[in-house]
Amino acid sequence: MLQNRRISIQMELLADQLVAQKGLTAAQANMLFFILGHSGEGTSLTEIHNEFGFSKAALCRILKYLRQNGYVRAVPCVGDERRKLLFGTDKGAQVENFLQNAVSSACDQAYQGFSDEELQELDRLQKKMMQNLSEHTGDQRAKRSEHCEESPTTVKTV
After folding, report:
1. How many CB atoms lie within 10 A of CB 123?
2. Angstrom distance (rounded) from CA 15 to CA 21
3. How far from each other are the two terminal CA atoms of the chain, in whole angstroms?
4. What is the pLDDT of residue 98?
5. pLDDT, tens digit, for every residue of 31-50?
6. Closest residue by Cα to residue 130 from 19, 23, 4, 3
7. Rounded CA gap, 138 and 129, in Å?
8. CA distances from 148 to 10, 74, 124, 145, 151 (A)
9. Distances from the Cα of 38 to the Cαs of 34, 53, 72, 88, in angstroms?
């Protein structure tokens, strides 16, 4: 588990370095990717919380930065003024390719020297571990990832 934690920390540090040129952190880039991926219908803070599992307070800080810097806009939800739908802006869409390239570069660096078979096995084992843990914690995100067609090595996350 310690190795997984260290890998996660190192990946976030690498991603932070790669996206810093646009004034973003890895966490901000992840949230922006999620919002841009839902720009057609919009998304909510609750949906983002359910996807990533971060506290709403932490997500609010990230969202505040993204809104203040013009990457995201919030629109009151029809029928529920308390709920806001989040949409990417033109500025957010303009940095999407840069962020995708940064993600690709981070993955290339992290998985350097791995064969396709090793990457598939790593993906399978990670999903198996998440399934095992979800059975004991009740975390439904692990069950959703089990049915995801994309490997963790190709998903758009920073």
Report:
1. 17
2. 11
3. 21
4. 93
5. 999 999 998 899 999 999 99
6. 4
7. 14
8. 24, 28, 11, 5, 8
9. 6, 18, 12, 8
